[in-house]
Amino acid sequence: MDHTRPTTLADVAARAQVSVATASRVLNGSPHKVSAALAEKVRKVAEELRYAPNVQAQGLARNTSSVVAMLLHDVTDPYFALIAQGALVAAGERGVQMVIGETGIDPDAEIAQLASLRGFRPRATIVVGSRTTLADAEDRLAAALATSRESGAGVVSIGQPGLPGGCLYPQNREGAGVLAEHLASLGHRRFTVVAGPETLKVVAERREGFAAALPPGADVAVIATDFSRDGGYAAGRRFCESGRDSTAVFVSSDVMAGGFCTALREAGVSIPGDVSVVGFDDVPLAADLHPPLTTVRLPLSDMGGRALRMALDGPFDQVVPIPGELVVRGSTAAV
After folding, report:
1. 10 Å Cβ neighbour count for 285?
2. What pLDDT, in 10s, does the model give residues 250-262?
3. How many distinct structural domains can be found in the chain?
């Protein structure tokens, strides 16, 4: 045998003196069984030849696979990276493989990723990220996921309810409200909210939840920017240049808050001496900022693991609320 090329199923079949179809039934998990002795012989030869089964072939043989697809907005964002980490750990515990696709904030890109992964015949799909206000595109995505459910595949989303399958729903309004109450308890009455693009439902949930929990007469300004570190930095520059008299700022995510705080530091604005700053999510960088960031903690890694298990086992008709937890650090102080 030529050892410069990968071992094929035909190589295993030839060495084991069985047909390719029989070798495939053993190694690709076909429901058509062979005798225990013959199966053991084929597996032993496959191990000797270091044969690696083809995932797509396994999917064809079983009409499903051991692959779970995860679609998320941005693999470099710690929010999504921690969710993916939790799912990968749970996948290893369950003996399944994960394929991760990045989609940006675009339901049509999510649909395209679903189509590109169809050849793997995923056993389940997990869609991670805020839903959008793009109603037509969201309807198209829902239809594509409904087709997956009808074929027997598990479907779970992490974000707002509305897609087919199970849903883990971070409590954004409530968490933002807790931040507002914390700042109000410190005497703050003039606020700025740094918000992301309005096409993301999470942006409205956090902004509205924060505003709703403020005391009567509170003054609130909004700076809209990109939902990213650079967007937060740009918002920080605008905040400093505007001369706003806010004493507290709610930045809609920790990643954005990292950029925002950098801009304030460059402008000589003291946190929390001149202005208190809070974020949301409690990604690792929040604790490493100077000063460390007060925020709301979401159990991101646990959410990923829970989504993986739900995608494999169900239920597919439940919305599970995921509450946040206030984490008070050095970026907030009394007026």
Report:
1. 17
2. 999 999 999 999 9
3. 3
